[in-house]
## 1
Amino acid sequence: MTCTIHLPDYPVLLGPLSETLPAWLQQKKYSRIFVIADANALAHWNNTALLPGTEMYVVPCPPASEHAGGAERLKNLDTCALIWNAMQQARLDRQALVVNLGGGVVGDMGGFCAATFKRGVDFIQIPTTLLAMTDAAIGGKLGIDFNGIKNALGVFRNPQAVFADPVFLETLPARELRSGFAEVIKHALIGDYELWEKIQKTTPEALSPGSMTADAWTEILEPSIAVKAQIVTLDPHEHGIRALLNFGHTVGHAVESYFLETDEPLTHGEAVAIGMVCEGLLSTETETILRIFGRRPMPESIFPKLWERMQHDKKNTSGAVRIAVPGTEPFSLQILELSREEAFRRLKLYDSFDSFEF
Ligand code: GLY
């Protein structure tokens, strides 16, 4: 099954890469193709012949099963320097195409390198994780972490196309799949209640590798991508409604960056699931989210550190922590201001929910 979701400037082609990619490339005339690939995606995927580039930079991302959030540690200026260097060695000109094959880290960082190399060369995204297919690869946000702050440096620039092939989902460990599912939940809660109905019936077992067919994934991916596409089309540069995509992310980023510095890092989605519970505090949603994700114990001693991190969030003005939560209608945005006390109360409430710990 293939389908296309059209954004004003580029398509998202959903379906087997063997059908979508060669047909798209045939219509283009690029001087060279340079692939930036996630080592894991390459290791698990047996169709590398489809990759049109001979020049390649492989980002040595650790396997997600070994180290949750490990690839995030590579999303920095040092890795960019290695990528730009490889692009220069390959003598890329401005008529070249960069192909980013991998998860959110490779898409964000590879896109950033492409967007800044010689003032910008075209790039396409081939997301290989659920998170990247449904969220990171769409909407033109590119960037890297800096001085411990996530996505501190970056630009907006759209890809020429996004190719989402559910076959890659079979190569992901269950934890990685579940991580991406947090963004699917987010999209359903902010804009597609029919998708939310489907999610409520999803069991944690369904999110293990190989338990859903490519067509079943397409039925989830298509509406989820459509929500993201609709929002970034309405507000490409985040002056308004796009803030809705940050639902769960103010608390989520703080939790993610805190645990990244411990021996037990969380995946992005695990952190966003905690964030959605703390920010949304809606009972049925909380129940579903905790059923799928479990609960990470959250001792009060870490609350001040989380609060400090929440204040780095780009949405904050004059020290107040603002969170974006869904309103009562699909695609409606509510901005709430969280005081320190209220943030602590919500974190404590999260920690008190009766759910299995992970
Ligand atoms: N992932 C949030 C956004 O694209 O705006």
Note: The first helix runs from residue 17 to 26.
## 2
Amino acid sequence: MAKTYFPKVQKAIPYEGKDSKNPFAFKYYNKEQRVGSKTMGEHLRFSVAYWHSLLGNGADMFGGASFERDWRQPSDPMDRSKETLDAAFEFFEKLGIDYYCFHDRDIAPEGSSFSHSIKNLQTIVGLAKQMQKATGVKLLWGTANLFGSPIYSQGAGTSPNAHVMAHAAAQVKNAIDATKELGGENYVFWGGREGYETLLNTDLKHEQEQMAKFFHMAVDYKKKIGFKGQFLIEPKPCEPTKHQYDTDAATTLSFLREYDLLDHFKLNIEANHATLAGHTFEHELAVASAAGKLGSVDANRGDLLLGWDTDQFPTDIYSTTLAMLIILKQGGLGKGGLNFDAKVRRSSNDPHDLFHAHIGGMDAFARGLLVAHAIIEDKVFSRFIAERYRSFDSGIGAKIMSGKVGFRELEQWIIKEGKPELESARQEMLENILNSYLVR
Ligand code: XLS
Ligand code: CA
Ligand code: CA
């Protein structure tokens, strides 16, 4: 019998409904259940983040590993990667999840030379391809780790050293190749080191122009090789750099617009990065969606009492509901999905905790989906919002929006009409309605 890394879970996690007390069962996520025009599986497109769930060992800024997984034991790096891949696919299958995401250096180790690293990556990609075929699990997105190696300590695409920038480009080229080979539906750019620590040594304008060049080269390469996946940029305000160029959704969109890149990218919004940026998760989703650029989601949560990227599994149904409202309203995530960029806590040292973590996250989003769908069907908030803006549907509002009047005409109109009367925005009433859907 093949080695098993998760002996307590013998078969795929079942859906048992909300009254189940089985910790290894879904209470809300029922993959084939239809919600509106799609199944839950099609709506939610869940994904496991390889780096946290397969490579995580509980280490934090204050202490090393607090657990060592069985699949990380081989001393040879390639053997370790192969065993990790076996454990990964056992986990994906038993969890019943459709997608996974990785960084190049998560799945294959860096070699003694750049060519050696390419070879390692290609070997593992070959194996992953077979396992995807055998299991039906797919790649949601690939990315390159442009933050771990010391050569990127002063930036990757935005390094002051052109040699480093070229190295980053070569690495991304290979990560895109790997993603394409595995049928990846997206490719993510997260600029962990693309920012600055101090303006005393930084030419901010130059670095932004470098970043734009980097992205243009990526777009050219994508066209050249016919990669059909969606390019995504993942905003984050800080960590590891003090200031990162892709601080939040609005900043990233404006950068893309300024450098004529908007047509080629969408955003991958992470909940924890939103709160680090001083926004709510739903704000970042709404900003991206309003621009038609909400491509995918890193589904996790931060801790408002801890000011860093804690990457916890999402459990807050209020938050998943607000997120799903935005996702449903834009007709879904398209090629994107909900990737659990989240790690079990340092004290959760049993590999089976990975099941509890993902089951909780999947159930939280499934509940969010159900509630959001009911709210949209009942038109509770959409009716209220349409009514709130009705003064723009006709009369002076319609004239303003169609550009038929200017400041002069509006001055005349105000002189005649006088002071506006305001209606209540009814925030508390709406919050009560939302809660009434959540407790059903
Ligand atoms: C780190 C980011 C990273 C990206 C992928 O904070 O969330 O994991 O999602 O590079
Ligand atoms: Ca992320
Ligand atoms: Ca994060």
Note: The chain has a mean pLDDT of 97.
